[in-house]
Amino acid sequence: MRGLYIHIPFCVSKCHYCDFYSLVAAPELVDRYIDVLLAEADSYGGQSFATLYIGGGTPSLLGPARLEKLVNGLSRRFDLEHLHEATIEVNPESAGSDFLQTAYSLGVRRLSMGAQSLNAEELRKAGRAHSRQQALETIDTASHSSFQNISADVMIGLPGQTTHSLADTLNILIGAGINHVSAYCLSIEEGTAFYRSPPPDLPSEDDQAGLFESAVDMLGERGFAHYEISNFSLPGSQCLHNLNYWRGGDYIGLGPAAASHSGGKRYRNAPSLQRYLDAPLSVREGEERLDDRRKAGEEAVLRLRLVEEGLDMKEMAGRYGRDSINSLEARLDELVRLQMLVRDGCIFRLPPSGVLTSNSVFMEVID
Fold first, then answer.
1. Of 14, 87, 115, 162, whose CB is crowded by the most CB atoms within 10 A?
2. What is the DSSP letter of 23?
3. What is residue 238's three-state secondary structure?
4. How many domains in the chain?
């Protein structure tokens, strides 16, 4: 399976916790950006993809006409006739009915909405531009636009967040009809507003862990499978595009800061809109080709994120050869001995108690 990722780096404002590459831009710059994106797409012309993911930033800021220009332009340059999944990210303040209906008419069937919370104080403190009502209206409008696969992002560990407010957010979102939740623990990153001025009412690490565990329990009780460290879905609603990432598949990323992994090479575009607009084919950086031993180690980390599926060493041996994975398997067995992983035949998995401390496991796996 091969995935195509399109980065739309524009937002109405910068959230206080956000360290993704995004910025506020004038409408005329957005028009130019679509043209440049399609110019970069020309350099990959003719390739076939199984998944399409339009992320950001805030892709819903494109509006219907620009979205139509983008998707139709991609369809002329790539084989997208047999997509298994097409996803677009939206934020409630910009996902109107015209935009959602246009997205659906263009073949987009999966919606990923940045909710983060439905608590007014938590939204305000996080710097979000939407209200609880707008989020619920977006879900309702999407459902009436025929979308049946709707995901919501929820942030865990926001200032002032409690188990009760988190439960309220999740219960209302599920009641509104979503079938997928991406629940991310807040991390204070350098360069963000929260880093410059940390809120005094941030939950402690222990409190954040408790919040996450309460979300896992609640979602499980509502039928959501915990299929990846931060992702939960009702049956049949997993994100295929992201599963391809976690299974070590190939993907191409277009736009500034977008990453690619294809043909044994990985690279990314520089996180600079101006450089990208000036010369989209000259911003590639960090290109490297991984040998089988290193590829196996990195794929092992990705597959261990799949908390149900786990890491199948028999499959890894078929992909990379037994000689390339012997040392990897020895490290995994040592982690089993230390009770940091569990083993079932040729399958290694994170134990439920290890999900929140998985980074320490991954550091050992990657060697």
1. 115
2. B
3. coil
4. 2
- 325 and 196 in a single domain? The answer is no
Q: Select from 215, 244, 273 the last residue of a domain.
A: 244
Q: Distance of alpha carbon 18 from its chain centroid, rounded?
A: 14
For residue 328, the enclosing domain spans 311-367
Q: Which two tokens stand for residue 94?
A: 């910009």
94-106: burial string, b at 16+ Cβ within 10 Å, e else: bbbeebbbbbbeb
State whether 327 and 228 are in the same domain: no
Distances (CA, A) of 277 to 20, 21, 38, 266: 19, 15, 11, 22
Residues 93, 238 share a domain = yes
The model's pTM is 0.96
Which of 14, 47, 28, 18 lies closest to 254, judged by CA?
47
54 in a structural domain: yes
Q: Which two tokens stand for residue 133?
A: 């009502």
Contact 260, 13 (CB under 8 A): no
- Which structure tokens are listed for 100? 């959602």
Q: In this structure, what is the dihedral angle of CA atoms 28, 14, 97, 144, given to the nearest 10 degrees?
A: 150
